[in-house]
What does this fold into?
Amino acid sequence: MMDFSIYGDDSNALIRFDPRTKLFIFLACGVTSLYTYSGLYILLFAGAVCAVLALNGKPITALKAFLIFAVAMYIKETVDHAGSSSSVVVLIVSVLTTLVLYSLPTILSILLIVQTTRISQFLSALTAMHLPVRAVIPVAMLFRFIPTVQDEWNGIRKAMAFRGISLSFGSVLRHPGKTIEYVLVPLLFSTIGVMEELAAAALARGMDVDVKRSAYEQVRLSGADYIVMLLFAALSAAIVIMVTAKGAEGF
Amino acid sequence: MAKKAITQTTQPSDKKMRTRDLIYAGAFGAIYIVLMLIVVLGTSAIPILYIVAPFTVGVVCATVYELCVLKVHKFGPALILGVLFALVACSGNVLGMALAVLAALAAELIIMMGKYKSKKLFLLSFLAFNLNMVCPYTMLYFHRDEFMARSVSFYGQAFADELAKYAINGLAFIQIALALVGAAVGVLIASRLIRKHFERANIV
It folds into this structure.
């Protein structure tokens, strides 16, 4: 059965945040991801992203992500304070935890956009920002298409397993050229099919007309949206100012 | 009016990007970014592979880029791909973002030189486009000391020492060369795959 909820579902949401708020959180994550080592502040930041995700109807994903983040942070702190032993294990653990700390907030903010926003909401929110159509459609498509790529990729992996083609690290290393062909060709063929259907659907809904479109979807920034945007602006400003004021040694 | 718009999209001589082309560009952008993230995050635990990411991404992602520009055949798809890339990969790094968009613009100009007919220039344009993979590292070149200090507290001393070994002053040129070589290998793979699969299926 096809899982429709991967294309955005906020029916369980306590507060439905505006897509613009979610985009703002995405940009804030991009700025703060360079300052991941700022200790407790970044934990607070990740907690805030998880809280927004939970309020928007994905409490279980949010809880899991926050636990992963906290555990990674704890491991990193213990490894960093364990002394200056530079064994390979310490190196790998330290890098892996940092990778989690670095990428998790951004991935969560993308999840927030992808999993809780329907494309029509996203389109009307971007149009309400008075962006030109040429900017609106590619950005909306980018977020709409990430779950599609994921979905097709899962199917291809299953098909490869049926045919006995392994995707383990070793086999990728031994046959890099073949792996690229085995993965890319079916992925591109199936996604191009989806693209053509989406383009036909867009034409059928009159996306190609040069007049201003009205939208069935009502988008309005509520008080909660303003509070969340202010909170994230304050948090990222605090992180950036703290780091630049103290210098990199301060932590 | 709607009727006119629909007939316009079906005419290949139409030079402006229409909705259909914008949808293609956005969707290919999603594929490109997902593959790039898989390659970069999958290899960055080893410092040397983190540095050669422009090469690996060039090899893997060339086919996606080529299909995108060959499918749309107008001014715009490479630029949109570049902007989406900059938005995800270089956010928080304004200089890197600007350079990534410039690289995409250069790719567009190369395609334009071939008047959207020369297949060789379509293929060649990826060499310029793949230079955007160097842009997330701009912080490393211009603020080397700051970056090293950061990665000590960020990745730990051991990783930073390892990184410092490779972060020699000529790194920018090495990475540009890596990006070009990666793009060249990727383009060879792409043209083979396109000839073998996508042209036969009438996709491009």
Summary: The CA atoms of residues 50 and 62 of chain A lie 5 Å apart.
